[in-house]
Design the sequence.
């Protein structure tokens, strides 16, 4: 190998080594959560925008009486654009749900699941007394809405 090729090869290896060291340093700093120093003004601006985010208040009723459970009601505050599913989760209820082609499918609430009282039993929801034509994770709520989750032992239209 010529002396010129050897020098080029060493320069290339040196540059690759330096690039690798810089990459390792950047990843290490990111993993440790090191962020650029600020004067605090940006942080206070972020807090203000979060405080100014519009919220809505809705009522969520969970009626499990057909499944020998209880009926509960909770008022929750949610960000604008929240869905029926978001409201259910915000109540603190133990929710068992899976994603489907139609959005989130609520299989169970507080330990009471679809199928526990026969093949046609499960959870249904209404908003302001009306059945929705979309899934619970697609129905956007408005301030003052009342969401009712009802456990049914027979599905009837």
Sequence:
């Amino acid at each position: 190998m010529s002396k010129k090729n050897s020098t080029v090869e060493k320069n290339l290896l040196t540059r690759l080594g330096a690039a690798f060291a810089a990459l390792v340093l950047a990843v290490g700093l990111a993993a440790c959560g090191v962020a650029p120093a600020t004067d605090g003004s940006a942080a206070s601006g972020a807090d203000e925008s979060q405080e100014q985010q519009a919220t809505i208040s809705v009522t969520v009723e969970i009626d499990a009486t057909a499944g020998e459970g209880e009926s509960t009601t909770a008022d929750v505050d949610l960000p604008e654009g929240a869905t029926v599913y978001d409201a259910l989760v915000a109540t603190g209820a133990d929710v068992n749900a899976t994603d489907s082609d139609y959005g989130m499918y609520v299989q169970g609430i507080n330990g009471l699941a679809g199928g526990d009282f026969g093949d046609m039993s499960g959870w249904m929801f209404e908003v302001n007394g009306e059945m929705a034509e979309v899934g619970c994770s697609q129905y956007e709520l408005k301030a003052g809405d009342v969401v009712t989750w009802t456990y049914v032992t027979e599905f009837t239209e």
Summary: The beta strands are 55-63, 71-79, 95-100, 103-109, 112-113, 122-127, 130-131, 146-152. Residues 16-44 have pLDDT under 50 and may be disordered. Helices lie at 3-31, 41-52, 84-90.
